[in-house]
Amino acid sequence: MTECLYLYDTTLRDGQQTQGVQFSLTEKQQIAEALDVLGVDYIEGGWPGANPTDSDFFDAAPKTRATFTAFGMTKRAGYSAENDDVLAGVMNAGTSAVCLVGKSHDFHVTTALGITLDENVENISATMAYMVKEGREALYDAEHFFDGYKANPDYALSCVKAAYDAGARWVVLCDTNGGTLPHEVYEITKAVIAAGIPGDHLGIHTHDDTGNAVACSLAAIDAGARQVQGTLNGLGERCGNANLTTLIPTLLTKEPYASQFETGVGHDALSGLTRMSRQLDDILNRVPNKSAPFVGASAFAHKAGLHASAILKDPTTYEHIPPETVGNTRIVPMSNQAGQSNLRARLAEAGIEVEKGDPRLGDILNRVKELEDQGYAYDGAQASFELVARDVLGQLPQFFEVKRYKVTVERRKNKRNQMISLSEAIVVVKIGDDKKLSVSESMDASGTDRGPVNALAKALAKDLGPYQAIIEDMQLVDFKVRITQGGTEAQTRVIIDSEDGAGHRWSTVGVSPNIVDASFEALLDAIIWKLLRDGAQAA
To answer: Rg of the chain's alpha carbons, rounded to an integer?
Structure first.
């Protein structure tokens, strides 16, 4: 018989503590909607009144299946719960659940708060009782609990028991500094349950300062905790919080968790996890972590020839779950270390069937190795590799021909006497018998110069005649530059990541002594691969 395990997301509050992250109101609404579709049980929206964005977010609270939760702190000493204006701001948000943080480490009580230990326990008890009286689902975040327990177990336990005895639905044990190890979390969580707080009222909140946040969360679940808190992509202060994009698929696909627990996330929703992870990175304008478990672009990449050979026979030889379980894809990268096993596997994924022993396989490998000697890198540019292979196999249609392009960069003063730069690009393409000239500049809608590569990308994609509808939803989402050789023979390698409206993402590479020329080559590959994948017919 399965037990309920509750998933509590704090991306919109704790995740916003990440350095460089500041959600807008619209972004908060988008993330809340995605979390609700995923199936988490609680969505913590932030601290009402802490900043204008959070206040506006609660004023226009999203309608979610998940329990929408406000965050704040327990009442202050010297105030009653009814008369504490800080607590009132949180309660006035009108959410059905309220999570309030309070001290549980004696050192923090006496040093940070400057009150007695008994006063702190009274603050916790009175606050929880007030929330229950007001008809709210009360959650108590026991800040610094594990450090507090190690320093003074009796006092730490008195804090969490005060919250539970006053009616808190959940008492959440927080490893606020992130320094507690999994075996300690397991033993201390067991001790809390033995002290009288049942596991189905106990939550875990961990930070990743030792790289153990997910392991510590699992340890608490093993010990009996039945709520787990975390953030998407592991966002959070310092090293981040427990990563729900790692934790959720672990709970749904690994034993004993998969058989023991039922969560709000179904397997259909799980198949959208990779896209959701990348959607968050897009919102934050961050480059996705390729090495992220489950959802990273390299999570199911098999570079070694021995691995690729085994994968062809049975994917379970080197994959712990099928990649499509979490909406990811298998990649067999091409590089100068590759053998024919890698090559055939990669071609098969692209829908290209070539028999084992076909001499053209050797031709493709030789061509790849030749190009990598010139500075190309197909390990991280699968789309460009596919175009090379199709060209060797005679399967690369010519959709259009670039006759010429030109980019100019101007540095001048604007009407406010400020120095600005502006790039302009001209691209001439031939489609069938028609020539088309497109001009675009690098200034965006906000008046910011986006540079010559942006101008080129806009000009190239401005008018491709019969192909225009296919490429309309393309966007450049990442741009990486590397100098592959030094001195007078320096070569510039550009890798571009593109994405379309369906969430498909692909990488292309260009190499040239000139960075603009290398960028244009990668841009051109990106468009051609998109046309190929979407079934465009050559004019």
So the answer is: 28
Helix axes 117-133, 153-165, angle to 10 degrees: 20
Taking a C-beta distance cutoff of 8 angstroms, is the pair 346, 378 a contact? Answer: no
Tell me the per-residue pLDDT of 21-80, one tens digit each, with 9 for 90 and over: 999 999 999 999 999 999 999 999 999 988 899 999 999 999 999 999 999 999 999 999
Evaluate whether 444 touches 475 at the Cβ level (below 8 Å): no
The one-letter code for the residue type at 197 is: I
pLDDT at 435: 94
How many angstroms separate the CA atoms of 192 and 184, rounded?
12
The reply to whether omega before 323 is within 30° of 0 (cis) is no
For 194-240, what is each residue's pLDDT tens digit? 999 999 999 999 999 999 999 999 999 999 999 999 999 999 999 99
Angle at 221 between CA 216 and CA 226, to 5 degrees: 130
Tokens of 380: 């991280």
Closest-CA residue to 140 (of 121, 116, 155): 121
Q: What pLDDT digit, counting tens, does each position of 372-424 carry?
A: 888 888 877 889 999 999 999 999 999 999 999 999 999 888 888 888 888 99
Total-model pTM? 0.74
Residue 414 phi, psi dihedral angles, 5° rounding: -90, -175
Q: What angle do CA 267, 299, 292 make, to 5 degrees?
A: 90
Rounded to the nearest 10 degrees, how much is the dihedral formed by the CA atoms of 440, 430, 494, 479? 40
Tens digit of each residue's pLDDT (9 = 90 or more) over 487-515: 556 789 999 999 998 888 899 999 999 99
Tokens representing residue 465 in the block: 């005649």
Alpha helices in 39-84 (DSSP H): 52-59
Which pLDDT value is given to residue 503?
A: 82
Q: What is the 3-state secondary structure (H, E, C) of 170-229?
A: EEEEEECCCCCCHHHHHHHHHHHHHCCCCHHHEEEEEECCCCCHHHHHHHHHHHCCCEEE
Cβ neighbour number for residue 49 with a 10 Å cutoff: 18
Q: Choose between 75 and 344: higher pLDDT.
A: 75
Which DSSP symbol is given to 507? E
Nearest Cα neighbor of 2 from 233, 204, 257 is 257
d(CA 469, CA 240): 41
The single-letter DSSP state of residue 120 is H
- What lies within 8 Å, CB to CB, of 3 at 6+ separation is 200, 226, 260, 261, 262
Instruction: Please report which residue ranges of 226-320 form alpha helices under DSSP H.
Output: 244-253, 257-260, 267-270, 273-284, 305-313
Torsion sign, CA atoms 377, 379, 380, 382: positive
